[in-house]
Amino acid sequence: MRVLAGKVAELPEGSQVAVEVSGVSVVVVNFEGQYYALRNNCSHKDYPLLGGDVSMGRISCEKHGAKFELSTGKAKVLPAVKAVQIYRTELDGDEVYVLPL
Ligand code: FES
Predict the structure, then answer these.
(1) Secretion signal: which residues (predicted)?
(2) 67-92: per-residue pLDDT in tens?
(3) Domain residues for 73?
């Protein structure tokens, strides 16, 4: 079941928003014109990824600096070693949706 993340106009490049997908918080990121969605929870400790710095296709956890690849959810920088769950994004007209993979 897909969930509306927002209108394209509300999600410009560099923006982030968190939405609930089946009771799980998911962060949606517009990075270089592509939408990515990951579980909004660092795999190191219980900390949200929303608002973390995004660069080189990775989102940082602001708590201890781990970085996760937007396209795969893989942990690329310690102290996180486990991946975070990724979700699918879908563009439908001028709306962005998130759905489980
Ligand atoms: S809680 Fe994210 S790096 Fe520690």
Answers:
(1) none
(2) 999 999 999 999 999 999 999 999 99
(3) 3-100
Of 23, 21, 22, 69, nearest to 49 by C-alpha is: 69
**In ligand 1, which atom is closest to the CA atom of 49?**
2
- Ligand 1 pocket member 6 (CB < 6 A): no
What is the number of structural domains in the chain? 1
d(CA 83, CA 75): 5
Per-residue HEC secondary structure of the chain comes to CCEEEEEHHHCCCCCEEEEEECCEEEEEEEECCEEEEEECCCCCCCCCCCCCCEECCEEECCCCCCEEECCCCCEEECCCCCCCCEEEEEEECCEEEEEEC
pTM of the predicted protein model? 0.96
CATH code of 62's domain: 2.102.10.10
Nearest-atom number in ligand 1 for the CA of 46 is: 1
39-50 confidence digits (pLDDT tens): 999 999 999 999
